[in-house]
Fold each of these.
Amino acid sequence: MLPLLFAVTEAAHEAGVIEKFGLDWKYVVIQTISFLILFGVLYKFGIKPTIATMEERNQKIEAGLRNAEETQVRLTAAAQESAQLIKTAQLEAQKVVDEARKTAKEFADRQNAEATTRAADTLAKAQQAIELEHKKMLNETRSEIARLVVKTTEQVLAKKLSESDRAAYNEAATKELTAL
Amino acid sequence: MRGDKKTKQLAKQLFRLSLANGQVSPEQVAGVLGYIEKTAPRHALPLLKLYQHAIVTELAKSHARVEHAGPLAATTLAQIAAALTKKYSRPVTASAQPNAHLLAGLRVRIGSDVYESTVAGQLTQLASAV
């Protein structure tokens, strides 16, 4: 800055400009010294602490950014771990569901088999009952027919047998009984 | 017919006393009844019932009741009595009893034995076989 001031001053002496503008070297020097003092005070108590604060802030920001990056990395790792856990859980859940389906299918198959067996047994028993009922009905019918035939025969014989027939039968019966 | 052990034994003894040559003798029976009337033993009524049952059973063994449908000749009855006498080895008498339900034939009852040759019996057997 001083070379510039000297250059300006020298130029003003050469051209007589300094006199035209009414400059006074004494005031200029005083102003310069005052400015320098003010600049030093401002630098020491204002600019330097501000720069230090900004440096500190920058360091904090950089640390924050690093933390953020580390957090991002950890978050990514956690996300991957979570995804892995979810995948594992899904696989296990799928396995459990498959086993449950398999068990349910086996239970249903067993139930169906038992139901089929029971139905077959019931059908067999029903058929046996029907056959027994059929045989019983046939026997009853046969017995009833035989009873009717015998009854009718008895009635017919009671009317148609003559005394000579009875006598002949009695004679044959006598021979049979005396031969015992 | 109820009676205690002694009454049954006495009835058996009296029954044995009523037999003569293995047959029920009317005289012996009259004597036994007279003895009972005279001595009046305990439980006389059950004793008499047991004695009567034994006599009736023994008489039934010696008498054949011939049920018949249709005419039955006296000679036929005699033939049956002779055959049963031979079979049971004791004198057997026979009496006829008409029974129209037999339709034709004879049914002979002697004691607890029954001999039957009747149309009704054969029809019953036929119905049972069917």
Amino acid sequence: MRTVELLVVGGGPAGLCAAIQAAEMGSSVILVERSQHLGGQLIKQTHMFFGSEKQYASKRGFDISNILLDKIASLEKITLMQSTTVMGIYEDGVVTLEHKGEYIKVLPKATIVATGASEKTLAFPNNDLPGIYGAGAVQTLMNEYGIKPGNRVVMVGAGNIGLIVSYQLMQAGVEVAAIVEGGPKIGGYLVHASKVRRMGVPILTRHTIKSAHGKEVLEKVTLWQLDDQWNGIPGTEIEFGVDVMCIAVGLAPLSELLWQAGCQMKFIESLGGYVPTRDENLQTSVKGLFVAGDVSGVEEASSAMVEGYLAGMSAASYLGYKLYNMNEVKENLLNQLDSLRHGQMGEKIRKGIAELQIEHEAAASVDA
Amino acid sequence: MRIEQHPILDFKRGKKITFTFDGKQMKGYEGETIAAALHAAGVKSLSHSIHLHRPRGLYCAIGNCASCIMEVNGEPNVRICVEPLIDGMVVNTQSGKGELK
């Protein structure tokens, strides 16, 4: 059995920042990542980030990932375990891992779960045809491996991911036939929407997929218009001959480990599904178990990084490591989160998070 | 369908290697996944649903959805979207659930 002060599960933006913060405060850290690469979804983000300088705004996702990885490499307190999957969290705190066929047991004093989220799908006839991808898969193929998913695509979802990935598809030389959005309005930022519209891509709001067609692979898509009750209107069908459909209808937290650990969970629609209750320091209802990033509520990489720093600091503090200006740093991180959660969408996220707040006894908090 | 020119990204591909897919010789690059190499060769139908045998392709590409499982070097249920391609690999379309040895 290996022992460690802090185990961080997930090497995406939240997990990387959590490990950095905790190691800088003096804690020993094992960072476990299922994939062979660290950086999570950052490594396939070719667009420049918003937010403020503190969250690396105006830098591209893959550059941010490199900055964080350089930092990780400079910290001796961090042990990296890539190609390693967490199998389970047990009642006595033991966490079991699988690494290339080897079974490993770890007993950490504290754990941060930063497992991220997975793509949601959409129900329509033939939605399982090859050629229908989640938006993340299209990004992986194009931006990580340099492979086109096909020649012509219908994008489903006009949130930020749908808009950004449409633009990335065009950069890779794929024709975007249309962007389809079930809601009455474009969900993503106007700046992204106008960019794809300027390139001649129609954004069809109040439309959805009626059916996909094809034998072995996707060949054609039928769309139709929706009424105010979200029912399809017969006679409004439009067909597109496409070999790719990209589904960008949101993400759901990858919360299996939190359920297994016995965390109190609540269904919050605006955060993507079931998410853990937590205190201000991102400690869940299970003592010593912290969360950060999309697994605690689906947002963006920028807020995932800030949550990572906060969870890292809270876990280090829980382990007895302190900063002389910890309250100041904490306030600064909370302010960053507040400013990232502005606007209409941010309002929903703030409301959702407010429903999840719990209090721990003083001994477990950063302020102790 | 590999992207040769991109306005932002510069793809550094590894050594060219060979593998077989359903008995056919194919080429890919070191450092990419089996799914990436198959996709580049235009292979999109990867697995089949157990009861209705409907074709299934890549959906999540990060090892979550199990829509891409294949038999690799005789081992069934390998998620090829996260399995690195290795020179000489034998990749086969899987029929059924696969057997534990």
